[in-house]
Model the fold of this input.
Amino acid sequence: MPSLKELRARIAGVKSQRKITSAMKMVAASKLRRFQKHAEASRPYADAMRRMLSELAAATAGQGELPRLMQGGSGSTHLVVLLTSDFGLAGGFNANLVRSVRQIVSRLEADGEIVQVLPVGRKGGDAMARLFPTKLVERLPGTAGREVHFQTAADLGARVTQMLEAGEIDRVTLVYNRFVNAMTQTPTEAPLVPLPVPENDNQTENTAQYEFEPDEGELLARLLPRNIQVQFYAALLESAAGEQGARMTAMDNATRNAGKAIDDLSQRYNRSRQSNITKELIEIISGAEAV
Amino acid sequence: MPVQVEIISPEKLLFRKEVEMAVLPGEDGDIAAMPDHAPIMLLLRGGVVSLYENGQVTERFFVSGGFADITSQRCTILADEALPVTEIVLSEAQERLERLETQFTNVAADDISHQDSLSRRIQSARAEIEAAEISHPTH
Done:
């Protein structure tokens, strides 16, 4: 049985923990709202880009050699880009993702591909350095829970594009947590190269009569790297929102558990205080009776 | 019948409105989007998009390059970066131009693609400064 003093110290400790977790929850909630808004605001660009790509893909179909960014290389080196958070305390956010990366990597290897991993974010970097030290290309820093700027995605996209053009890699897959709601983030595998040919979804507009300036090839050559950047941007935003959602949920649970622990400890404290008093009273009374 | 113009940057939708005409800075020369324009996709250089209503310019946006998709009813502008001309900060644009120009002099002579992209960005910065000077002259 711990002494009263020990119990008091533990109650105080858990109370201050609860303060921290509940503050973290509030911060995550407000960040989540902001990131969600950003993710929504970035959608029109991605949508318009998809529409243009599908037009271009239709126009260039069957026109000889397609760019490497579109159909990938002929080798078998597969780059897996993994987006994780920089900080933990977000429940299973990173662990789930790492588990699905392991599955993806072993599946790709079973298909005879040479896998390379490019983790973005400290947590993913740690896990990949531990699991696949030989496959690691480089560990890139994440966004540290701050706002996601397009430049971050642009740099990442430029890096991957460069590797692809240099022939270091042939295919690219992006793995990240897709934001479903504050409770749920789904690990998602998105192939970037070869480009999954977008369905031509606007049949009402007559696509055959499009003109291109300067020409299809040039436009495609400029649009494709941009598309990779946009995909990274969208994924970074989703992942950032997901991280805050996961943290909010995890901290909410932690706050609730701390509350329970405090109730428990308080009860034990009161019980032992009362039993101490009773014991003292018995001692006094029995002492008085003996006189 | 007006044409529906959208100006979109990666971060957000900046402008969506029906206007009479939009003049875009195409890479091979300016192009005007009007109702019933033949469908065309084009590359944009750094420059100013002007929106016309009743023969008058109502709004101007600076875009630093990008793509445009014009059909008979709409004109979608995917800008790398975009902002209303009135919000350009002249000193920042000038600083950027100077930085780009020093970069340009340092680029290896045989690195054509890098030179190419830099000169495109220099032109874009020049266009930005020019647009700012017309919109809010400093003297």
Notes: The longest helix of chain A spans residues 216-290. Chain A touches chain B at residues 38, 41-42, 44-45, 48-49, 51-52, 55-56, 150, 153, 205-207, 209-214, 218-219, 222-223, 226, 229-230, 233 (CB under 8 Å).
